[in-house]
Amino acid sequence: MSPGIHAVVRAILSVVAAALLAVAVVTSPALADGNFGGIGIDGVPLDDGQILVRQLVAGGPAHLAGVRTGDIITHIDSKATRGSDFRWMVERRLKGRPETPVTLTIRRPGEEKPLHFTMQRRKLVVPSRGTSTKGVDP
């Protein structure tokens, strides 16, 4: 397949995935009643689907567990992030009912072996845009 056609197919699939995500969020048992929690990570997808931790909510579950900015999430609850849909992983794996566990496998630059962090999701109060959590480390 030529690069141009490949780009068009990816764009179409992205739109379809976004539409399916909207349906999934509305119908998700963990999210339908508005009672959901998270772990306090602002991540960005890498080209291969893994998630780069860009920011942490200070005092959030991920921050308190020892996750750091620059870490790369390779697995969420043993499900590989490589090759996955970023939005789906966030909405269906990272978010969930408060006080439920989630386990991250992290690749940290400079560390030889993967790191594992288990934490409890909780409702978070995210600071306003004027407040930065960028670069928060334990």
Outline of this structure?
This protein has 3 helices and 6 strands. It is of the alpha+beta class.
Give your account of this protein's structure.
The protein has 138 residues and is an alpha+beta fold. It has one domain (3-120): PDZ domain (Pdz3 Domain), CATH 2.30.42.10. The protein is built from three helices and six strands. It has helices spanning 3-27, 61-65, 86-94; strands at residues 41-45, 51-56, 72-76, 79-80, 101-107, 115-120. The longest helix has 25 residues, at 3-27.
Q: Which characteristics define this entry?
A:
138 residues; six-stranded antiparallel beta sheet; alpha+beta; 3 helices; single chain; Pdz3 Domain
Give the arrangement of secondary structure elements.
Layout: H1 3-27, E1 41-45, E2 51-56, H2 61-65, E3 72-76, E4 79-80, H3 86-94, E5 101-107, E6 115-120
Antiparallel strand pairs: 1-2, 2-3, 3-4, 3-5, 5-6
Portion of residues within helices: 25-40%
Q: What is the total tally of β strands?
A: 6
Examine the coordinates and then state which fold CATH places here, giving the name of the CATH topology: Pdz3 Domain
The ordered string of helix (H) and strand (E) elements is: HEEHEEHEE
Distance between the termini: 46 Å
Largest sheet: 6 strands, antiparallel
Shape: globular
Mean pLDDT: 79
Count of all domains: 1
CATH architecture: Roll
CATH class: Mainly Beta
Question: Which superfamily, in CATH terms, is the homologous superfamily?
Answer: PDZ domain
Low-confidence stretches: 16-31
The fraction of residues in strands falls at: 15-25%
Multimeric organization: single chain
Number of helices: 3
Instruction: Please give the radius of gyration in angstroms.
Output: 16 Å
Helical/strand content category: alpha+beta
